[in-house]
Amino acid sequence: MNMIRESEARARSGLFMLVALPLLVLLDIAWLVLSARANQPFGAIAAVVALVVLIVLLAGFFVVDPNVASVVMLFGRYKGTERRPGLWWTNPFALKRPVSVRIRNFESNKLKVNDHDGNPIEIAAVVVWRVVDSAEALFQVDNYDNFMHVQSEAALRNLATSHPYDAHEEGQMSLRANTADVAEDLRKEIQARLEKAGIEVIESRISHLAYAPEIANAMLRRQQASAVIAARTKIVEGAVSMVEMALAELNKRAIVNLDEERKAAMVSNLLVVLCSEHETQPIVNAGSLYQ
User: How far apart are the first and last CA of the chain?
Assistant: First the structure.
């Protein structure tokens, strides 16, 4: 397939033609009047033909707005694109099609897909884009706006199935935890899909991410359980360190000599105090440990 790339249109200054064409029309009318008065039919006919041509040439004016590219086509052939804002003139038989090159936003629908682990999730994204090649946007795809929407949602689906919602392994990339990396991967994939349409993807980011309603409660309990386990692990690690430090200080300062059974009892009591969720109630033992 032959790729049509954007090229510059050879449009003339509209201000110059705006002065020249009306002046030529006035001169032609004067020629027609003089020919009719002088009874010169051939001169009058030539003046009428020239007047018709000049009137047709007036249709060659077109205006280019800021951040709008005007694509010029003549009898089905691409003749170039005029991006300079202002009044311009070109072949009056040429078709001028405006293409906006402004930056635009597109927010996808909430898509329901399965993540890498097979869990159903809801995901949506915002894509910031613009047209950088007006010829490709018009001639390489049928409708570049609709093409961008469909390909962006397809890329989003593919991204969601390539990563888990939550990471369950060390160093694993997830949709929820690695938002910046996931957004960059999404931008690159959308850009690769839209390259042939003359569209540049400036930015993309996930705007909505959640578990599907049917598993949301179960996943919430799973996250809460994971948080509790992580917190308990941290508490136990700290408690063991504190017990180890207490035994080391008692032994270092020779405050009391503890045999293995007394050490075990002390370790048990300290762990209960340090790891308990509620305040512990002390019990004073007036007798001996061995009684």
Answer: 96
